[in-house]
Design brief:
By secondary structure, this protein is of the alpha/beta class. Helix 3 packs across helix 4 (52-62), helix 8 (184-194) runs parallel beside helix 9 and helix 18 crosses helix 19 (583-596). The strands form twelve sheets. It has a seven-stranded mixed beta sheet. A six-stranded mixed beta sheet has the order 8-7-9-12-14-13, sandwiched between helices. The chain is built from 22 helices and 38 strands.
Length: 665
């Protein structure tokens, strides 16, 4: 087999790697404590999905999780949705994350290393982190914040965001965070749903060498949250009040005197945070995860599948609106330290991320596949320019990684690095398929299902398919599946989102192939979610931004995965009477989207169409149109009988055919 071919072996663990892997230690513990004899990853995975309750009970015991009632049956009621986990447990996520602060051998070690674009460093020890969390939690209590109250943040990837999350969790409050590069309108579309009592926000930040003053945007966000009681400012802002007379307090003043943290132990299913979907079909939906489920996934995923522990350091340059940012906190739960960085991933050059890895001594690097592709195209050669001796593994996520980039990493970055590609989702804030430290890696393939995940590829008939493209489904519950969706009291939105296709079986909305060898290939989204530069975004933010452009009657946007890892995101607009699509209008559309959503939402091109196809319920047909551009024939891609204006589809079918011919040339 050519080394450039999909399936070529790119990494194989040595006997020493396998012997010292934390997963091997877990199997030894299972043998000694439970009499369960397992010697390979596949045997361990099969046991973890056949004996779901026993597996998760063992995870809690092996990692010695703090709390009460962990020895009760792990899975008391196996339903999807509605599984009941550890019904007698009471715990606190933050208390478990901060366990290293109580270890006299480790409490002075670095927990968070923050790096700026100018390479200024700030280090926070485990002890300092715990005391700042304690101080912030006590401040929340002084403001009357109690379990189930909401604390929202609009922050870049800085240590204060982690402290805010853990402090909120310590009192049992519900956390949510958005990146400051989102417009006020897009931010309020998320935060208004939650009615937060406290807002933590930056009034300035810098990116790609440029300072951004977002104080006016912050004032607009404050004004759009009528239930807000106080704002905590990170940045140059001073104490005082907002435009409505509500107090503003500086974050550094709250935490300057650290205190021993106190933790409210809550039920396993108590809400921890709300992550927002990309808003494919309307307002972004709030996905609620619990203290217990996220904690179990944290120690299982990073702690076993990613082989992370107290001797490791984790780096990911994640936008805080992306669920990958939350992996900073889940890696802390393993005892690993983390690097926070809110700057541009290419500031000063395409090799910026690798220079950060060398400077910080990170052992694991998580990144969007788009960054690795960009570094490959730029011709950087980190292997020759920086010291990556500490780096053990790279986790590529966000979108499929092309084989050429996979091989480039081993050629130009580090030959013996464990490069893996994982797929998961905001929906579970974890992974379904990905890496493990015990098996070889084949280029273009994900190593296999993650522990505790009964994942398969299913055809339209609900049957498992091998070596064929199918829907990614999960047959048995996972503890980090959402507790519920926000503002969905009857659960209809939840069932519709994940269980409509195959009742009682989770359907993720990804196209995958399960190979005969048990590996997987991910082909991209099967729904209308856009995936720009490895970050999933929703069409609804674009549609909302275009509302007040008078020349546009209606619009539709799709994203199409291209061979070699490319991505094409066109915007189709139905012009108002008398309007013309010229360069000036195209530029204005891009400017409006950039201002009211973000630069990531700006399409690759704008095309005028005779009409936007909609269903009889007036829903736009993003998915069928995407299928056309992905190469499916019209008869398979679109059910014309379900369309209110079927004549509008002909233009898209012709354009898609032209597009596919151009790609083939």
């Amino acid at each position: 087999m050519s080394t450039d071919a999909p399936g070529a072996v790119t990494w194989t663990p040595t006997e020493a790697d396998i012997a010292r892997a934390r997963m091997t230690g877990f199997m030894r513990w299972l043998r000694d404590e439970r009499g369960v004899e397992l010697t390979t990853y596949r045997e361990l995975w099969r046991w973890s999905v056949d004996e779901v309750s026993a597996f998760w009970e063992c995870i809690a015991q092996y990692f010695d999780l703090v709390g009460d009632g962990w020895r009760s049956p792990a899975l008391a009621d196996e339903r999807m949705p509605g599984a009941i986990w550890f019904p007698d447990a009471r715990l606190n996520f933050a208390e478990n994350v901060l366990r290293a602060a109580s270890d006299r051998h480790r409490h002075h070690a670095t927990a968070i290393l923050h790096l700026t674009e100018d390479d200024d460093e700030r280090r926070i020890s485990w002890r300092e982190l715990a005391e700042q969390v304690g101080a912030f939690a006590d401040w929340l209590r002084s403001r009357g914040i109690r379990p189930n109250d909401r604390v929202a943040a609009v922050l870049p990837n800085v240590p204060e965001a982690i402290i805010g999350l853990l402090g909120s969790a310590a009192v049992g409050a519900v956390w949510t965070i958005n990146s400051p590069d989102l417009s006020a309108e897009a931010t309020l579309g998320r935060l208004r749903q939650l009615q937060p009592r406290i807002l933590i926000a930056a009034d300035t930040y810098s990116y790609n060498g440029k300072p951004f003053d977002v104080s006016e945007r912050l004032a607009e966000i404050e004004g759009g949250l009528p239930g807000l009681e106080a704002t905590v400012i990170i940045g140059q802002g001073s104490r005082g009040t907002d435009a409505m007379g509500r107090p503003r307090t500086r974050f550094d003043e709250i935490v300057e005197r650290g205190v021993e943290p106190r933790f409210e132990r809550v039920p396993f299913s108590h809400p921890l945070w709300v992550l927002f979907s990309s808003g494919t079909t309307g307002a972004p939906k709030g996905i609620v995860h619990g203290h217990g489920g996220i904690l179990l996934e944290a120690v299982k995923g990073p702690g076993l599948n990613q082989d992370m522990g107290p001797d490791d350091r984790y780096y990911v340059a994640a936008n805080t609106s992306w669920m990958v940012w939350n992996t900073l906190v889940t890696n802390l739960a393993t005892g690993a330290s983390v690097v926070t960085y809110s700057g541009s991933p290419t500031f000063g050059g395409a090799d910026r991320q690798f220079r950060i890895l060398a400077r910080t001594g990170a052992t694991m690097f998580a990144t969007g596949a788009a960054y690795l592709q960009a570094a490959e195209r730029a011709g950087v050669n980190p292997r020759s320019t920086v010291d990556l001796s500490a780096l053990r593994s790279i986790l590529s996520t966000g979108s499929p990684l092309p084989v050429s980039t996979w091989l480039w990493v081993h050629r130009e970055v580090k030959p013996d690095v464990h490069l893996g590609s994982d797929t998961g989702g905001t929906d579970i804030c974890s992974g379904f398929i990905g890496s493990n430290p015990l098996e070889p890696v084949h280029a273009g393939h994900l190593q296999g299902p993650l522990l505790g995940v009964a994942v398969e590829a299913w055809g339209e008939d609900g049957q498992r398919v091998i070596d064929e493209v199918g829907d990614l489904v999960v047959r048995r519950p996972m503890p980090s599946m959402p507790l519920f969706l926000w503002d969905d009291p009857g659960g209809e939105k939840y069932r519709s989102a994940y269980f409509d296709v195959f009742p009682g079986v989770w359907t993720q909305g990804d196209w995958i192939t399960e190979t005969a060898s048990g590996e997987f290939i991910v082909h991209g989204r099967s729904d209308a979610t856009l995936n720009r530069q490895g970050v999933r975004i929703g069409p609804s933010d674009i549609y909302a931004a275009l509302r007040d452009v008078p020349e546009i009657r209606d619009s539709l946007v799709i994203g199409v995965e291209l061979p070699g890892g490319g991505y094409y995101m066109p915007l189709f607009i139905h012009l108002a009477e008398g309007a013309t699509l010229d360069n000036a209008l195209s530029a204005r559309i891009a400017s409006v989207i950039r201002t009211r959503a973000s630069a990531r939402h700006v399409p690759d091109e704008v095309l005028a169409v005779p009409g936007i196809p909609v269903t009889h319920a007036n829903k736009k047909l993003e998915v069928p149109i995407k299928r056309l551009f992905s190469g499916q024939p019209l008869a398979r891609a679109v059910n014309l009988g379900s369309i209110a204006n079927p004549e509008s589809v002909a233009w898209f079918a012709n354009r898609a055919a032209q597009f596919r011919r151009t790609l083939a040339e």
